[in-house]
Amino acid sequence: MGIDPDACYRAVRTRDARFDGRFFTGVTSTGIYCRPICPAPAPKREHCRFFLCAAAAQEAGFRPCLRCRPEISPELPAWTGTSATVSRALRLISEGALDEAPVGDLASRLGIGERHLRRLFDERLGASPIAVAGTRRLLFAKRLLAETSLPVAGVACAAGFSSLRRFHHAVRTAFQQTPRVLRGKRALAPAGDLVLTLPYQPPYNWAALVRFLAPRAMPGVEEVTPECYRRTLPEGSVEVRPDPQAHRLTAKFELATLGDLGRLATRLRRLFDTGAPIQDIESHLAKDPRLAKTVQAQSGLRVPGAWDSFELAVRAILGQQVTVKGATTLAGRLVERFGERRAQGWLFPAAQTLARADLAGVGLPRARAGALNAAARAFAASRPPETIEDLRALPGVGDWTAQYIAMRAFNEPDAFPASDLGLIRAAGRDVARQAEAWRPWRAYAALHLWMEQSHD
Predict the structure, then answer these.
(1) Domain-terminating residue out of 259, 284, 307
(2) Is the pLDDT of residue 387 over 60?
């Protein structure tokens, strides 16, 4: 599975923070699995087993350490770039694809057989799809118990457990404690007072990220300042601020109803790209003389994701052949005319709404209005576009638009809109050829080139 046991053990002995999130150590003498930075004394080498993900350690019979808390480890997928199918499956699982559907349905969405999907997960991760989904729910619930004052029943609901009984059973099995004992003494906070943390691997260039997002913010839906990002949600609102000393972002929710917090947290992680193995990315890109200086000058640069893939697709289509400011103006008109007003702001219109909407009054050319209607119908379908090929099949969506949507909405690290005039202006007409050396992180290279020009 791509693990060097000797290198892993050296990282454990030295508590090397660079490896936090890259692997987990199962200790056979205690039955516990830990992060490389665990403050406990390092176990003997013969007692250590190493796993690429927490789910593999759980499936092997180890329980999470209560001291180093694997649930708050940065999500650095060591398998990124090794299997596009596994990466896409993990993205869908994080969005809840297995919460109510069987593995066979997930395999069908990926265009492969269920047996092949299970084999890929076993080869790449050492854990089954069901184990990955279950561990995701369990560790998120552990975070809610430790970091919030939600009642136990609320934690079970927010983490995506179908019943309180199953939640209690999962916690007792994994931690050998009940949820109440695991939480300890904590006074309940007022309803709606909820803060979650989003750990990341440093460095993190917050300033560059908000500089990219601010001019593209959906009017009425989002607000972006140098200090924070705010967004209207169906359940209320969320505000995200950086906490650089702790290597994390802090998300404060104001919610009228609890909803599935696990999915909200996943959307925020994707929007702010907190799972990027940034040290690996920058080490790779800095080998190219064209990128070396800009990588050093803009260290910690992330690819801004998207709260919602349909919303980003609309934004990308609106941005065809117009300025960023012009596309933002058009997006604001869409929101005002077809969005839903809430106390905290506006909700972006749903795909079902725009699928049948008359967009003539928004100021769009007829062809682009038709492309938006077609995209809305596709995203409103039972199987929405999930790959670059799906996007290219939509009317009015060429390679530039498909690649741009993929790099932000699908978090594809190797997506690259080679025909972009900004990239050509920055690196020359042979930018596509140059970009071959930047694989599998071409999306990050594109951001570096775009942000480099924004300073000129």
Answers:
(1) 259
(2) yes
